[in-house]
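Final report, Chapter 2: Outcomes

The project's central promise was a pipeline that accepts a single protein chain and returns its three-dimensional structure in a standardized token representation, suitable for archiving and comparison. That pipeline is now operational. To close this chapter, we reproduce one record exactly as it appears in the project archive, with the input sequence first and the structure output second.
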Amino acid sequence: MSGMGDDEEEYHGPADLDFGESTAAVEAHVAGHFDPLMGAYRWVGRVAASPRVAEAVAAGRTSVLLRTPGGHEGRGTLSGPDVWGGYRVEGTGAPPFAVPEVDPARD
């Protein structure tokens, strides 16, 4: 577990941030959970310091598509930087990592 919450799934490893016209390879740590009040999956985390990410954020490009190995991707927004030079990333909907599939008919 991530320490971000007891019922969260998480991913920690290499990822690509797609800004639309450019892509940056980053190290990411993201976790998420289904939020019953919103009725959606919410995920949040951070990407490590990267000159390409800093350049994109400085240019106002904060909407991203975060991709992880295995073909998982999620649309999110960057904010920051944090005290270590990395950036917070968060999104709602499909997360950029594998999550267990649940079949409501079987529960």
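Archive annotation: Residues 9-98 form one domain.
This record, like all others produced under the grant, will remain available to the consortium after the project formally closes.
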